[in-house]
Amino acid sequence: MGKLNDVEKMLLHSLPEGSEERVRLVTKIRKYRNECGCSMGARFLVAATLATILYWVVLSNGGQVNMLWRGFASLLFIFLSAVIGKLTGLSIARFRLCMLLQSAHKKLLNH
Q1: Is residue 1 part of a domain?
Q2: N or C: which end of the chain has fewer CB within 10 A?
C-alpha cells in the first residue's frame, strides 16, 4: 500500500485484524492514495477536444495566419485542460482520503 502516515497507522491498529471495517478502510485508503488523476484528466481531455472541434466547426472563417494561431491555441487549450483535469482528480482523491480518515477517527473516538 505504500507508506502510511501516523493517522492511518493509528486507525488501522485500533481495528481488529481481518475485521470487515478494517478491510474496507484499507481498501478505500489504497484507492484514494493510488489515484493518479488520469481518469479525470481523460474526461477533461475529451471535453476540451469536443469543445475545440465545435469551435472549429462553428467559427472556421479566417485566413491562413489566423488558422495557424487558432490551431496552436486549440492544442494549448486541450493540453492545459488535460493537466487541469489531472490535478482536479488528484485533489478530489486527497480530499476524499482526508474525509475518510476524519470520519474513521471520529468513529473511533465515539466508541
Answers
A1: no
A2: C
